[in-house]
Amino acid sequence: LPLDHYAALPSLHDVERVIKEVNPDVVHVHHLFAPLSAFAAVASSKLGVPRVLTNHSLPPVGEAKAWAKVSYMAPYRWLLKPTVATAVSAAAAQFTRELFGWRDVRVIPNAVDCSKFKPSEGLGEREDWVLYVGRLVWRKGVHVLVKAARILEERRSPCKVLIAGGGYFERYLKLLSSGLRNVVLLGKVSEQRKMELYRMSKVFVLPSLGGESFGVVLIEAFAAATPVVASRVGGIPEVVDSGVNGLLVDPGDPVQLADAISEVLSTEDLWKAFSRNARKKAEERYSIEVIGKLYEQAYSEALELNASAEHAASSDQLGTTL
User: Fold this and answer.
1) What pLDDT score does 1 carry?
2) What is the full DSSP assignment across 160-187?
3) Confidence at residue 315, expressed as pLDDT on a 0 to 100 scale
4) Are residues 232 and 126 in the same domain?
5) How many CB atoms lie within 10 A of CB 69?
6) How far apart are CA 298 and CA 196, in angstroms?
7) Are residues 224 and 103 in the same domain?
8) Are residues 276 and 128 part of one domain?
9) 237-250 residue pLDDT tens
10) Structure pTM?
């Protein structure tokens, strides 16, 4: 069965041992649905270490509310006890509230290194490249992009669609794109090559069908001053401001996708405005410096809440003794 993720079960004893050895002030747990995350949360709770838990996920299919209905049967609901809970988007935060019953979930987006992901000097000359970077799995909708590429080729658009990444869908995409001269499957690329592709491309596309809580590739593209065309699903509309730094389309619609790509490529003034706005948003909203400060605040609050809880427990114990 082709799966997006695979998990290896860790040892709770080993996780607890590592936390004791490191002796951290705060344990920050990411990707809440992985076994290691649950064990880290349980071990740190047992040891009295404050926990910041961050959700990066949305359901792979279906509505979040439908998944929340069965959450009472899931051990995660009872094992994960955050001191402070965060999520990478409002969509992911709402899913977290519904699934775990946590009232206070703050949104702290993912970050991008704007000194690493950046445009060429003076914005540079770009190719008419339409870029996708990511896993080649069904829910990412890359097959919709290939279908849009066929439409663009039929319209005699000079653009070339570059697809970087690997996954179980790769063979199918090769079959789907056979005979198309404007589609190139690059396979997995290095970090350096990825940055070059962002800088050289005119449009970045994320055609996801669902399960997209944020999309780090979106802010990597923004940092490179590359406009984005993406699906209107999950947390994507929180990142891409349609008509400002890119365009949003309905998921699974290759005609809309082709139209949006054509609009960005064929209108130079629009592309320049989107490009400027993309870089501006990356710097002002998603830079490591900005997001780092938000997490510093979360860590400080976790320490304060934990200290208050310990003081209250100590006072209760003293009162019982007296």
Assistant:
1) 42
2) EEEEE--STTHHHHHHHHTT-TTEEEEE
3) 57
4) yes
5) 10
6) 34
7) no
8) yes
9) 999 999 999 999 99
10) 0.90
Same domain? For 235 and 145 the reply is yes
pLDDT-derived band at 260 (thresholds 50, 70, 90) equals very high
164 within some domain: yes
Q: Provide the domain count of the chain.
A: 2
**Predicted pLDDT at 191:** 96
What CATH number corresponds to the domain at position 50? 3.40.50.2000
Q: Which residue has the tokens 């929180």?
A: 238
Cα–Cα distances in angstroms (integers) from residue 70 to residues 65, 96, 312, in the given order:
9, 13, 34
In the beta sheet, which residues pair with residue 106?
86
Same domain for 258 and 312, yes or no, is: no
Q: Whose CA is closest to 260, among 189, 204, 322?
A: 204
Q: Please, which residues have CB within 8 angstroms of residue 39's CB and are 6 or more apart in sequence?
A: 10, 11, 12, 15
The whole-angstrom separation of Cα 210 and Cα 49 is: 35
Half-sphere exposure of 304 (CA within 13 A, CB side): 6
Task: Calculate mean pLDDT across residues 255-278.
Answer: 97
First-last CA distance in the chain: 61
Supply the range of the domain harboring residue 143.
121-285
Q: CA Rg, the chain, in Å?
A: 22
Asked if the structure places residue 321 within a domain, the reply is no
In a domain, 16, yes or no: yes
30 backbone dihedrals φ, ψ, rounded to 5°:
-110, 165
**Domain membership flag for residue 310:** yes
- In which element (H, E) is residue 125 found? none
